[in-house]
Design goal:
Layout lengths: L2 E7 L3 E8 L4 E8 L3 E2 L5 E3 L1 H18 L7 E8 L5 E3 L9 E2 L7 H8 L2 H10 L8 H11 L1 H6 L2 E3 L1 H10 L3 E3 H5 L4 E2 L4 E2 L1 H7 L8 E3 L4 E2 L4 H7 L6 E7 H8 L7 E6 L3 E7 L11 E6 L2 E8 L3 H11 L2 H7 L3 H10 L9 E3 L17 E3 L7 H27 L4 E5 L6 H11 L3 E4 L4 H13 L9 H4 L3 E4 L3 H21 L3 H13 L1
Parallel strand pairs: 1-6, 6-15, 10-13, 16-22, 22-23
Antiparallel strand pairs: 1-2, 2-3, 4-5, 5-8, 7-9, 11-12, 14-15, 16-17, 17-19, 18-19, 20-21, 23-24
Helix pairs in contact: 2-4, 4-8, 10-16, 11-14, 13-14, 14-15, 15-18
Length: about 500
């Protein structure tokens, strides 16, 4: 038997999935690490911890494989995008990894967004102007950490840093490059205007390569840590959102993929770049001839986690001897659609699509004496789904109505979530029984890299069993009345977000 290892480098953990040559899952492994946050909007990782986590999960997966009688065909990567790490001339870190979740560049992003240059950059790169993008992060670093920038020989991301540690080569796949706000989506090369804004020379950035590009020749140190043959092919792959589309077979313009994990995303793959004139959505390259259009949302399962921690009765959890999430889902099922006239805007962590406002904050609207914690729990879940629906509508505006929606992520394990999403979107929702779509997408790119497949159509045969949920018309009717109000209140509150964000920041510094 031969093997693949798919690796997904995430925000708080790295996962590895061991597959056989037919893409059957054999085992899974995970290693966690810290995400460092503070009130300023900082969200950073320790690069050494991530390198060690990647080495460990690959080692653990390889130990489960019989490499005496079989071969490890390739290790292929999915990773979070829009990270920045400052490196000296010897590629040693001068900073921690500044992640996609870091919002400290919000003032720089707002200034650029409201300038003619910002509109030009968006039109050429397909990357919305927001503090998540490496372009605005580097512009912010120039303003706030000029001394450290002066020492910086290279600007990398977590994947280019990992591959340098393993192979001493400084390269990045086209999908990660496309998410930086500095790559021209039409030429797939670094954009001169963006580089000028960032005050960065192209020699300071990694070489852009296709996602199916292989690296071979592990350093002795990396080979020893992983315990795999030094000539094992490592495939660059793509960013996690794009690979989630591939991993569920959503590779045509008529299939929308929705992922709800800690955060969330709504994406569709096209065969040509599509730029949103309203700047609501991104347009990123995935692989040669493939682009992904969509919107990332900051607020997904983490908001539900917050709600469960603060709204579920601890004594009830103890009395019923079940975990709080199971109890919460049971309680929510007992509340009718619309939560008795209560809306929740889930912007606890600012918001990317469709607002692109790092100052956005959450709120309940319509709260009255009649409402209970059960209503509030349901409205939180509905708010997450309604927020997804606003991005879903933007995608439909740009590429047309989908034939189907495929949804994955931790939320998909709960029946109440699955049905609610179908009802709010008023669209059938398919749920693959295999949840690690990013790793499956990564090894599919490895298969293409090795010449085992010609295109990604094969993924549809690898996804496995799917559960389908049809909209319940009674609930659809309720949500069709509430969605316009959800958007109206969002619009009314938007001008006040910056004020409340400043007041909150002041309150944490006194």
């Amino acid at each position: 038997m031969n093997y693949f290892i798919g690796v997904d480098v995430g925000t708080t953990s790295t996962k590895a999935v061991l597959y056989d040559q037919n893409a059957t899952v054999l085992d899974q492994f995970s290693q966690g690490y810290s995400l460092y946050r503070d009130a300023s909007g900082m969200a950073e990782q320790n690069p050494t911890a991530i390198v060690e986590a990647v080495e460990k999960v690959i080692h653990d997966a390889a130990q489960k494989a019989d490499l005496t009688n079989g071969k490890l065909l390739a290790v292929s990567f999915s990773s979070a995008n829009q990270s920045v790490i400052m490196l000296d001339k010897n590629f040693n870190p001068l900073s921690r990894v500044i992640t996609w979740a870091d919002t400290r560049a919000h003032d720089v992003a707002n200034e650029l967004k409201n300038s003619p240059a910002g509109q030009q950059i968006y039109a050429k790169t397909g990357t919305p102007i927001h503090p998540m993008s490496p372009l605005t992060k580097i512009m912010w670093l120039n303003k706030t950490q000029a001394d450290k920038v002066a020492q910086t020989a290279y600007f990398g991301d977590i994947k280019s840093y990992l591959f340098y540690q393993f192979f001493n080569t400084f390269k990045v796949d086209v999908s990660i490059a496309s998410c930086t706000g500095m790559m021209n989506v039409n030429t797939c090369d670094w954009d001169d205007q963006a580089l000028e804004l960032a005050n960065v020379d192209r020699s300071q950035l990694p070489e852009i390569v296709n996602g199916i590009t292989q690296a071979i020749g592990l350093t002795a140190a990396a080979q020893a840590k992983m315990g795999i043959p030094a000539d094992t092919s490592f495939v660059y792959g793509a960013f996690d959102g794009a690979l989630s589309n591939l991993g569920v077979g959503a590779i045509k313009q008529n299939t929308v993929a929705i992922t709800i994990g800690t955060s969330a995303g709504v994406r569709v793959v096209t065969d040509h770049p599509v730029i949103d004139p309203q700047q609501r959505l991104f347009c990123y390259a995935v692989d040669k001839g493939l682009w992904v259009i969509g919107g990332p949302l900051n607020n997904g399962g983490d908001v539900y986690q917050w709600a469960v921690e603060h709204l579920v009765d601890a004594s009830a959890v103890k009395n019923e001897n079940i975990d709080p999430y199971t109890l919460a889902n049971r309680v929510i099922e007992g509340v009718p659609a619309g939560a008795h006239g209560l809306l929740f805007h889930p912007f606890l962590g600012g918001e990317r699509a469709p607002l692109w406002d790092a100052n956005a904050r959450g709120s309940f609207f319509g709260l009255s004496h009649i409402h209970t914690r059960a209503d509030m729990l349901r409205s939180v879940m509905e708010g997450i789904c309604m927020n997804i629906a606003t991005v879903f509508q933007a995608v439909r505006d740009l590429v047309g109505n989908p034939a189907s929606v495929t949804a994955t992520g931790g939320f998909a394990r709960a029946e109440v979530w699955r049905q609610m999403l179908a009802d709010v979107l008023n669209c059938p929702v398919n749920i693959p029984n295999s949840f690690e779509s990013g790793c499956l997408g990564a090894i599919t790119m490895a298969m293409k890299s090795l010449g085992m497949i010609e295109n990604y159509e094969i993924i549809k045969t690898l996804v496995g069993d799917i559960s389908s949920y049809q909209p319940n018309q009674d609930a659809v009717n309720v949500y069709q009345n509430y969605l316009p109000l959800f958007k109206q209140v969002e619009g009314l509150l938007t001008p006040a977000y910056s004020t409340i964000a400043k007041l909150q920041q002041q309150s944490t510094t006194h």
